Amino acid sequence: MSLSVEPTAHSDPEHVQAIGGGTRFVPGQSHDRVTIVNGKVQLGQRLKDLWLNRDLLLLLTRSELKVKYKDSVLGYAWSMLNPALVLTIYFVVFKIIARNHQPFFAIWLFAGLLAWNLFNTAAMGATSVVVGKAGIVKKVAFPRELLALSVVGVALVLFAIQVVVLILALLLFGIQPDFTFVAILPLALVALIVFTGALSIFLSAVNVYLRDTQHLTEVLLMAWFWGTPIVYTFGLISGELAKYPSLLWIKYVYLCNPVTPIVMTFQRAIYGKTQYTYAGQVYHVLPNWGPLTYAGLVGIVLAVSIGLFLLALIVFGRLEGNFAEEL
Amino acid sequence: MAVAAIEVKDISKQFRLYSEKHTSLKERVIHGGKMPFTPFWALRDVNVDINQGETFGILGRNGCGKSTLLKCIAGILKPTSGEIRVRGSLAAMLELGAGFQPDLSGRDNIFLNGSLLGLPRSEIAKRFDDIVAFAELEDFIDNQVKFYSSGMYVRLGFAVAVNVEPDVLLVDEVLAVGDASFQRKCMDHVKKFQREGRTIVVVSHGTDTIRQNCGRAMVMNHGQVITVDEPGEAIRIYLADLLGVGTLAGSESGGIEGNVLAIGTVQAEHGGSGSRPHMYPGESLTVTADVDSLDAVPNAMATIAIHDDKNELVFASDPDDPACAMDIPVGGGVVRFYFPEVPLLDGTYSVSVGVRSATETAIFDWKDQVTQFEVANPGRSTGRVRLPVDVSFRLRSSGHTGEVPAVGAQFAPLAGWEETAS
Q1: Is residue B309 part of a domain?
Q2: From residue B407, how far is each of A102, B403, B410 by CA, in Å?
Q3: Fewer CB within 10 Å: C terminus or N terminus of chain B?
Q4: Which of B58, B71, B76 is closest to B224 using CA atoms?
Q5: B318 vs A106, A194, B324, B353, CA distance in Å?
């Protein structure tokens, strides 16, 4: 659906200020913008509506946070339990049981999970958000993409809390991040947010029509997680593939995962090393690229994500028209 | 020249009625992606212009498409074809408090809901106190909304919606909320909106709401526009053509069954019978009841009762009125009740007729709600009855003169009036 606004061709001189005194409403003056409702999807208009309703996005995000965490410190601490547990499990399994010899493996995990959690939390939450908020969707007209984006907003707040925890951990372990690459992180974060937003908008609309999208998303995200170098290292993959020159193309397919370059940038900046030595042998964890290569990869992801975001808006616009009937 | 606040151009809306709805990918795959459906046109080529500053009513039965049209205007539903242009800001009250989050406080919900209705946050902050005062929730505004009573809930919803001060307000049968004093406040607010030149669209199947508030009304049926007219006429068409209550349903014939006396056909006729199915307020009404009698019944009492469409008693004849007494001979006859003037307003009324003995020991026969008549009011007064009223004006007496500068005729000074007035 499109709700577009355009200035009217004429204003009516016969409309004088209404009687009753002290009223703010004057027909024919500033109230002359025209909203058009029809079956078409106008992308520019959708973007404009999103921008005009940014206050609402903020409020939706805030109320979501308030409902979830009751505005209390303990509530937010509670929200960290899940990522903390995930981190602990991987650490115990891979470091202690599987005897991974990578130094500061916890920080390595944390760096990757930080980016992944933002993506994962938002995609999972957004899938069910339109169905979950059927009450509002059926009765109030507003850009419904905001519901999906508010979930991204919530994930972003949780991301910020994890960043604080990460900084504390870095100080505790005395690890110095690579600041040349930290400078790329804002770009990587923006790319991640745009990509996550695109996927969230898409999934939230599809789930209205195919309710099992929710379960599918869960499974696919699990596969996606293991297809991204978070627990293991990219160096491990490329090292193995280097043994079989005919399989080099797999590396490029692997890099097509938009989350991979972002996760790698996070790891490169926060973990700060590309290799370590263990028992006299050198292990590569990350490719030895310069900051421009990382930035370039992230830039490609951002460009693709912007395209996907616009595409998601178009798809959402097409599906949105029948939300009120389908819910 | 009136500017159209809402232009509805050739709007059609198709719903798909699925006999079996597959809402998951799994089911779709199993059924090969096919979902047989029957198209259902909720709206068909609806064209209407609603002018700026007018209060416009939409009447129709359940499922006639009036709410669908409202949702299309609000932008909640996308029309299948056609276009709607809305001039100015718009707020829809399709359900009060629709956007409320039960877990949030009233304060947070005011901001959230106001923002959903399109108000910037700074504006909401400015109107916050007004909204709270209007909803009469000063003491509870920081409580979670889930602990509100249903009355508090709708009051808050209404307060937010009206304080958004839209150019166009869409209302879907929600005006009857809260207690009597809050209802009055709502109506006052609607009147204020009208004075301010805002456009209001009301959807209702309550004829009273439409008649009282609207300048024009549209009648819809099966997704199509039947008529757009002034409210009195629109309501008449709605009642007569659509509800099918126009004809005076008569006759339920009974027989003599082991009783002395039985009432047969009962019919109601009014002053306008023959020319139109419904009567106007103030016309005469004649109810005739065919009575068969096996025996002579001296001193029988004929009684009549009228109920409205909510089955509330409007009138029952005095059981001791000697005028109702009659002697019915063997074979029976026709009992005729004549009301020279029926001051009832809109509605469908049913008539019950009975015959009993004067001593009230025996009820010979009683036909409950055996026939009905319908009143359509061309004027704009509402309620159950039309009471004749003389209105006049005079200045308060200054005390030194007995003269009363009355505008109307009969406004006799009451004893003690001057003392209380001065």
Answers
A1: yes
A2: 102, 12, 9
A3: N
A4: B58
A5: 94, 80, 8, 13
Residues A180 and A292 both lie in one domain: yes
Rg of chain A over all Cα atoms, to the nearest angstrom: 24
Yes or no, beta carbons of B101 and A60 under 8 Å apart? no
pTM: 0.72
Residues B368 and B289 in one domain: yes
Domain identity same for A23 and A97: no
Please indicate, yes or no, if residue B55 is contained in any of the structural domains.
yes
User: What string of pLDDT tens digits covers the 422 residues of chain B?
Assistant: 578 889 999 989 888 887 777 777 777 777 776 777 888 888 999 999 999 989 999 988 777 888 889 888 988 888 888 889 988 888 887 777 677 888 888 898 899 888 888 788 888 899 999 899 988 888 888 988 888 888 888 888 888 888 888 888 888 875 556 677 777 777 788 888 888 888 999 888 777 778 778 889 998 888 889 889 888 888 878 876 665 543 333 333 333 334 677 888 888 888 888 788 888 888 899 999 988 887 788 888 888 989 887 777 888 887 777 888 888 888 888 999 999 999 998 888 888 888 877 765 667 777 877 888 888 888 888 888 888 888 888 888 765 555 555 454 444 444 444 444 43
Helix, strand, coil in percent for chain B, rounding step 5: 25, 35, 40
Range of B277's domain?
A: 261-375
User: What type of residue sits at position A158?
Assistant: L
Residue B360's pLDDT is 59
Is residue B371 domain-shared with residue B272, that is, in the same domain?
Answer: yes
Query: Same structural domain for residues B354 and B273?
Result: yes
pLDDT confidence of residue B241: 67
Chain B residues lying within 8 Å of A67, measured CB to CB:
101, 103-104
CATH number at residue B236: 3.40.50.300
Cβ pairs A/B, distance under 8 A: 151
**Distance (Å, rounded) from C-alpha B21 to C-alpha B37?**
9
Q: Report whether B343 contacts B385 (CB < 8 A).
A: yes
Nearest CA in chain A to B112: A59
Number of domains comprising chain A:
2
* A96 & A216 share domain: yes
Residues near A162 by beta carbon (within 8 Å), at least 6 away in sequence: A80, A83, A114, A117
B 21-60 residues inside an 8 A Cβ radius of A? 23-26, 28, 52-53
Domain count, chain B: 3
In this structure, are B284 and B408 located in the same domain?
no
Interface confidence (ipTM) of the complex: 0.76
In a shared domain, residues A10 and A154 = no
Measuring CA to CA, which residue among B172, B97, B118 is closest to residue A135? B97
Q: Quick one: A165 and A184 in the same domain?
A: yes
- Half-sphere exposure in the Cβ direction for B297 (13 Å, CA): 26
**Residue B234 sits in the same domain as residue B359:** no
- Concatenate the DSSP letters of all residues of B259-303 into one string: SSEEEEEEEEEETTTTT-SSB-TT--EEEEEEEEESS-EEEEEEE
What domain range includes position A16? 1-40
Q: Are residues A23 and A133 in the same domain?
A: no
Same domain, B371 and B404: no
